[in-house]
Design goal:
CATH topology of chain A: Rossmann fold
Helix content of chain A: 25-40%
Distance between the termini of chain A: 14 Å
Structural class of chain B: alpha+beta
Number of domains of chain B: 2
Radius of gyration of chain B: 30 Å
Helix content of chain B: 40-55%
Structural class of chain A: alpha/beta
Shape of chain B: elongated
Order of helices and strands of chain B: HHEEHEEHEHEHEEEHEEHEHHHHHH
Strand order of the largest sheet of chain B: 3-4-9-6-8-7
Largest interface: A-B, 29 and 25 residues
Radius of gyration of chain A: 17 Å
Distance between the termini of chain B: 33 Å
Oligomer: heterodimer
Number of helices of chain A: 7
CATH superfamily of chain A: P-loop containing nucleotide triphosphate hydrolases
């Protein structure tokens, strides 16, 4: 299969106070299309930084980042925004829904950047909510939904523009075990039934077990790559 | 406008704060509309006044009467085209709160001086035939339902009594005049001779509060005014003569530079509002940083997020300004009507005040929104999402 994500010699540094800290050190990574990759590692290891680089939320200081066939490490802020809208869906630990919008309005947000008519947007939103099993909660505000339901809305929002890649940052970190399993099953279904390429950052080995491949980030490097499990 | 619900949602995020800010802006623009309308009203009065009409009053104070004999001497001057004495009876009609003044004038001279006053043919002649006749403005006639032939009793106040000791004066309506602008047709004008004869001795009898003069050459009003004042320079009743415009300007100057005060108040209010709105917008953006970061995450560009914040400020500011100006437009005519101010034109918020108000609202929104919008634009997504 073709690689959807390729990172070559990626270095990322942050300035913290007067210190310049290198978070990722000449990191290489390749993720194939249809893969479900779990990125694990301790806090501060650079997992989220790596995810941000893959998702086009940040740029590396050195090295190449190629995602969905496009070099994104040199793109401007505006170009990256357009690129993200086309290629990446994001799921966060704390859902990051807009609190005053209903579930369907939250899911619709990425479609506002397209030329779809209002009716078409509505149809797509309905389909996405049905996919995550929340069609009957379309009019509810986030505060009226449980954590698991809010994360399902966030997943519907991430999927609505049919992205090449789904990046999930601790998607079950704020959920109880039962809800977490529901969400992980949903993500796995999206990977297996819809062929979505998924990269998930997690602390939780149980969550990582749902992935087809696990990688460990430690102190800014990929320290081990366990063998692939059956997807 | 597919983003409208996003902006609306941002405004609803803190309803109480949005409502209070909205009301603050409404109040400020109500004040802006009301004060600027009064300013414009004063300006329109000034436009109505002209330099061919002179007002002669006492050099001592405006309220000091002049002898009636001055009228004949002014009439004899070569610069004079027409002249009328002005006597003044302050009174009430039917109810104590219906304050109604009656002017005693030379009706023929008065209508010659004010071609903008229109009296149907024959009504002036009819008024001149009846000593107790008055000509009333159409505004008053409509207000009280007066028609020609009606008798209107005026109860004098301020110690103006008739020779028989009574304070009650009765006049016959002989004519109804209108004028342009219509709102100015709000006087009752009787004949000076009748009022002077009927009033008690020593109670303003044979005196005038003012003399109106129409001069032949308006371009020389200053010289004509000087000639009149020179005529009475050695009299115990010296005069001060000014054309209408200068006269009103002098009165207004005694009160203060109204325009400067009004503009100063409005500027202070808008400046205070600017700080308030800027603070509210800054706070609003600060609170929504994670939400703005999410918008950027899903593909909203920096510029688009910046515009969302600016449009939010524009909608809030312009909507509140329009409501404030609308309130001013509704309230001012009611207040003027309730105050029963004779001769005060109906004040409406003029188009220029609407335009200036909306422009001020746009400037307010842009200035107060520019820094929060810049902040939203510069927001680094990864840092914002991680809470840094």
């Amino acid at each position: 299969m073709a690689a959807v994500v390729t990172l070559k010699n990626v270095v990322k540094r942050y300035v913290r106070g007067k210190q310049r800290v290198e978070v990722l050190h000449k990191l290489d990574l390749s993720v194939e299309s249809g893969e479900f990759l779990a990125l694990m590692g301790p806090s501060g290891s650079g997992k989220t930084t790596l995810l941000n680089l893959i998702g086009g939320l940040d740029r590396p200081d050195e090295g190449e980042v190629t995602v969905a066939g496009e070099r994104i490490d040199g793109l401007s802020s505006g170009q990256l925004a357009k690129w993200r809208a086309r290629h990446v869906g994001f799921v966060f630990q704390f859902y990051n829904l807009l609190p005053v919008l209903s579930a369907e309005r939250n899911v619709e947000v990425p479609l506002l950047l397209t030329n779809l008519s209002r009716a078409q947007r509505k149809r797509n939103v309905q389909a996405a909510l049905e996919l995550v099993g929340l069609a009957d909660r379309a009019k509810h505000k986030p505060a009226e939904l449980s954590g698991g339901q809010q994360q399902r809305v966030a997943i519907a929002r991430a999927l609505i523009a049919d992205p090449t890649l789904l990046v999930c940052d601790e998607p079950t970190g704020d959920l109880d075990r039962e809800s977490a399993e529901d969400i992980l099953n949903l993500i796995k279904t999206l990977n297996q039934k819809q062929g979505k390429t998924i990269i998930m950052v997690t602390h939780d080995p149980r969550a990582a077990a749902y992935a087809s491949r696990k990688l460990y980030v430690d102190k800014g490097v990929l320290v081990a790559e366990p063998e692939r499990t059956a997807a | 406008m597919k983003y409208l619900h996003l902006i609306w949602a941002a405004l609803r995020r803190r309803k109480a704060r949005t409502i209070l800010t909205f009301l603050s802006i409404v109040t400020a623009f109500f004040l802006f509309g009301a004060l600027q309308t009064i300013n414009a009203g004063i300006g329109s009065v000034m436009d109505f006044l002209n330099t061919s009409r002179l007002r002669v009053s006492s050099r001592v104070t405006l309220g000091q009467p002049l002898p009636y004999a001055h009228v004949a001497r002014i009439a004899a001057l070569p610069v004079t085209d027409a002249v009328t004495p002005i006597a003044f009876i302050a009174g009430t009609y039917q109810r104590p709160n219906n304050v109604q003044a009656v002017l005693g004038v030379d009706l023929t001279a008065m209508f010659k001086m004010y071609p903008e006053m229109h009296l149907p043919p024959g009504e002036l002649a009819s008024a001149l035939r009846t000593r107790s006749a008055v000509v009333v403005g159409k505004v008053l006639a409509d207000k009280y339902g007066w028609k020609i032939g009606d008798r209107i009793p005026i109860h004098a106040i301020g110690g103006i009594t008739r020779a028989d000791g009574s304070s009650d004066w009765v006049f016959d309506v002989a004519g109804i005049y209108d004028m342009d602008p219509h709102e100015y047709a709000a006087n009752i004008m009787g004949q000076y001779d009748y009022i002077n004869e009927a009033r008690a001795s020593g109670n303003g009898k044979d005196q005038v509060v003012q003399i109106l003069v129409k001069i032949k050459d308006p371009s020389h009003s200053a010289q004509a005014a000087q000639l009149i004042d020179d005529t009475f320079a050695n009299s115990p009743n010296q005069t001060q003569t000014m054309n209408e415009k200068d006269f009103i300007t002098t009165i207004l100057a005694q009160i203060g530079d109204i325009s400067l005060v009004v503009n100063g108040v409005v500027a202070a209010v808008l400046l205070a509002l600017l700080f308030l709105t800027a603070n509210v917008m800054a706070q609003s953006v600060r609170e929504r940083i994670p939400e703005l970061a999410v918008l950027k995450t899903v593909g909203f560009s920096d510029g688009r997020v910046q515009w969302l914040v600016l449009i939010e400020a524009l909608i809030l500011s312009i909507a509140a300004a329009v409501v404030g100006l609308g309130l001013a437009a509704l309230v001012i005519p009611v207040v003027i009507a309730a105050a029963q101010l004779q001769g005060v034109p109906a004040l409406h918020v003029p188009p220029i005040v609407w335009g200036a108000g909306v422009l001020a609202a746009i400037v307010l929104a842009l200035v107060s929104g520019v820094f929060p919008a810049q902040r939203a634009r510069r927001l680094h997504v990864a840092e914002a999402l991680s809470g840094r």
